[in-house]
Design a protein that fits this description.
single chain, eight-stranded mixed β-sheet, 14 helices, about 15% strand
Amino acid sequence: MAKLLRGLLMFTFTLTGKIKGIGFWSLIYSYCALCTCCVLLKLCWNAIARPSRAFHWKIRETAPACLNDTSLGTHCYVKIKESGLRFHYVAAGERGKPLILFLHGFPEFWFSWRHQLREFKSEFRVVAVDMRGYGESDQPTSTDSYRMDYLLADIKDVMECLGYNRCILVGHDLGGFLAWLFAIHYPEMVTKLIVLNCPHPSVFADYTPRHLSQLVKSSYMFFFQLPRLPELVFSMHDFKALKSLFTSSRTGIGRKGSGLTSEDVEAYLYYFSQPGALTGPLNYYRNMFSSPALRRRDIRCPVLLLWGEQDAFLEQDMAEQCRLYIRGHFRLNIISGASHWLQQDQPDIVNTLIWTFLKEGESRRSYRHSLA
């Protein structure tokens, strides 16, 4: 009787899990279909109303001068033996000093960390990398090449090729997502973790299905699952959608922010206007829903989480919930009036908060040493 009862319970749990799985993927594909219909309607309207302008875009042939600003650092390349991929990065500061490794978000590249490269090179070796598929780094064409395990291995391999076995890891947006995961899977390689506008992966996974408002804000992730269409939408009207992400009143850098110069915007258009340059970044999202569930979730190193109050894509309630998964020191700073593009929007405030966080450990060590 006991064996029969256990068998029935196991069958029930298995069936419940399958039903939940079917429900989850039904939600994913239904929402994807809804987003697609909305985009197609808008696309058709633009094609009818302004056909010559809607499907016009140009490839930028010449890099703007800001990308070669020597005050930001030196452009370098490293080829990873295991993957065979070549990565581009910009480095500044003295070799041998503690490493700060910066991971950009979507749709960005190393240039999004320009304010931090200038700021922290005096005391650290600072490196802002173009991640796989971005900028001047290699861009594998297959969707499968952007699985999470490959992306985490990239961070580890780049760090080791730089001659380091640990670093202060800083990530924004999708780079923040990878930074959380890297600190979970390689805790011995992260001395401190700094994340900008990205919740812990488990917080995002738990919160989003339960809050319709966040589900709507995350609708772009569902749309990105489609082949080719997202690339077309980003390219239309000479990359109008890409420009509006950074400059519009709803999603862009706010009035209180430092803003982007026309040259800064051209820097983004220079890279993303190149043939095939949008597919690699979008492939990150095309692999997101197939990532295995986290078995380990805890973060044991000190964590600084910075959050722009006016983030148009992520709800602020998720920021505080990240505390549940952090076993060490945790500091959360909500920056008033700041957008999702935090390190470009409010660089002075961000840099000051990072300096404070980096110096905290030194102050505690000095205090303990004086007591001894």
